[in-house]
């Protein structure tokens, strides 16, 4: 009985020692916290989830390589928050993430949340790579701000010139939702359209919660525009497209990348046909890593690639790669390496930032809805 007891005790001891050793080995991989914030609830939740999926996939791919920083095993982990597409909530969330010890920030999605939140990250010295496209985001003079997508300065200039030179629009009406993104894109569009010889016959505004635009559109109808440009999201552009048709307005709707979604097609229905949008970047099938990314994404999430996930994937990869190259996850040490990023991404052959943190060449694509489907009209740069 004594012998049996000793054998059992020895087995337990060895098993415990084995488990302890395995746990210790696993614990040796230092966790590197990366922050993430976007609208995860509400009317723009589909954008936030799309963006988050790209970040999650990038982190999983990087962790699969068993990364080391400074010779030590590391594991990247994501700390996510819902900023509800609200500027005040965005700032609160930003401080919460900083207090939680993040070493890099991936987000926010909206320009309206990214800009105030960037002040919080800058004070903490934490690099931030946001989806924000408003010019103001990187014009603040911070060394910590970087983009995942081409700015509205580039996008607005392309679509503004396109509607005048390629669509033959002379008289133009503009509506924006008064967010940092919507108004910023509309402003850049207006500059480019005027420079190309177009005339703005009406400028109206709404908000990012509205769904009834008949009063605004009735005012616009009197001006007899050739096109109506809308700066804002699909939750407004889709019902606006329907109401344009209902009021008998012949002018097509033109918008930015937040309208270039399958959900827009679903919400607008037959009224979507003829809508023209610009999207920062290349079509998925023209991206250098688009085909491989599409297969990987569909296998991982069981759904099709939407708009933003490839850009989020590249942004997250750029940040993690900078940490590895710098041999440190200390923001002060890897920030200069991030700023000098020069790598091939999914979305572009050369992902690099200028002195402000803008992408050097992100490219712009113009799409049109034909027969209920998005079709490419023109691609500028980014190859």
TrEMBL record:
The keyword Transport applies. Keywords: Amino-acid transport, Signal, Transport. It comes from the Bacteria. Pfam families: Peripla_BP_6 (PF13458). The keyword Signal applies. CDD domains: PBP1_ABC_LIVBP-like. One of its GO terms (biological process) is amino acid transport. Belongs to the leucine-binding protein family. Residues 31-350 form the Leucine-binding protein domain. This is Leucine-, isoleucine-, valine-, threonine-, and alanine-binding protein. Residues 1-27 form the signal peptide. The gene is braC_2.
């Amino acid at each position: 009985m004594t012998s049996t007891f000793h054998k059992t005790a020895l087995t337990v001891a060895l098993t415990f020692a084995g488990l302890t050793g395995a746990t210790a080995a696993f614990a040796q991989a230092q966790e590197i916290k990366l922050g993430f914030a976007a609208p995860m609830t509400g009317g723009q939740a589909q954008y936030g989830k799309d963006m988050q999926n790209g970040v999650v996939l990038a982190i999983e791919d990087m962790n699969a390589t068993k990364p080391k920083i400074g010779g030590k095993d590391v594991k990247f982990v994501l700390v996510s928050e819902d900023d509800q597409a609200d500027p005040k909530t965005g700032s609160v969330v930003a401080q919460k993430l900083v207090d939680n010890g993040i070493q890099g920030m991936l987000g926010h999605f909206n320009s309206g949340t990214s800009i105030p939140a960037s002040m919080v990250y800058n004070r903490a010295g934490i690099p931030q790579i946001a989806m924000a496209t408003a010019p103001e985001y990187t014009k603040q003079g911070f060394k910590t701000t970087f983009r995942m997508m081409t700015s509205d300065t580039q996008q607005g200039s392309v679509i503004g010139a396109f509607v005048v030179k390629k669509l033959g629009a002379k008289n133009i009406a503009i509506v924006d939702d008064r967010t940092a993104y919507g108004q910023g894109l509309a402003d850049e569009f207006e500059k480019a359209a005027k420079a190309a010889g177009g005339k703005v016959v009406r400028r109206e505004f709404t908000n990012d919660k509205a769904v009834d635009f008949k009063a605004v559109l009735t005012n616009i109808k009197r001006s007899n525009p050739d096109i109506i440009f809308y700066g804002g999201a699909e939750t407004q552009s889709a019902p606006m497209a329907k109401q344009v048709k209902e009021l008998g307005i012949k002018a097509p709707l033109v918008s930015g990348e937040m309208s270039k979604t399958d959900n827009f097609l679903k919400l607008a229905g037959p009224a979507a046909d003829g809508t023209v949008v610009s999207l920062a970047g290349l079509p998925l099938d023209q991206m250098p890593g688009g085909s491989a990314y599409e297969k990987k994404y569909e296998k991982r999430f069981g759904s099709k690639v939407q708009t933003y996930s490839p850009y989020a994937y590249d942004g997250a990869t750029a940040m993690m790669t900078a940490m590895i190259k710098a041999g440190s996850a200390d923001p002060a040490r890897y920030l200069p390496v991030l700023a000098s990023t020069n790598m091939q991404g999914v979305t572009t052959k050369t992902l690099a930032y200028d002195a402000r943190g803008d992408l050097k060449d992100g490219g712009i694509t113009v799409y049109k809805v034909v027969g209920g489907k998005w079709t490419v009209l023109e691609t500028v740069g980014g190859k």
